[in-house]
Amino acid sequence: MSKRVGMVCGSYHKDEVERMLMWAQDEARTLKMTVGDVVWVNGSMEVPLALDRMMKTHDGAVCLGIIEKGETQHGLAMGQAVMKTILELQLKHNKPIGLGIIGPGAEPHHIEPRLEPHARASVRALL
Known about the structure:
Blueprint: E1 4-10, H1 14-30, E2 34-41, H2 47-54, E3 60-68, H3 74-93, E4 97-106, H4 108-124
Parallel strand pairs: 1-2, 1-3, 3-4
Helix pairs in contact: 1-4, 2-3
C-alpha cells in the first residue's frame, strides 16, 4: 500500500510555489506515493495549523513556501517559530513532514535555483 501524503502550500509567492507543487507531486508519483489533499494557506505562519489537521488523515505531508529576507528580523523570527512547530507536529503525530520552505532570509537570487531541489527533497524526506 502506498503512502498517502498531503501538501500544504503558502500562497504568498504563488507562482513559484505552484511550480514547487508540480515538482513535489511528480516526485511523489515517482516514489509511488499517493497525493491526497493539497491545501493552500496565506503564508508560512498558517502552515502548522494546516499540517496539524492534515496529519490526522495522511501518512505524512510536505510544506512548500518561501520566506524572503526583509528589512527587519520579522521573517527570521517567523521562520524559526514555524520550523519549531513543524518539528513538534512530527513528534506529536509520529509521522514525517518534509520541509520545502525556502528561507528564512531568502533573497531574490536564492529563490529560483532552490525551487525544484527543495520541492523534491521535501517529498523524499517522507521515506
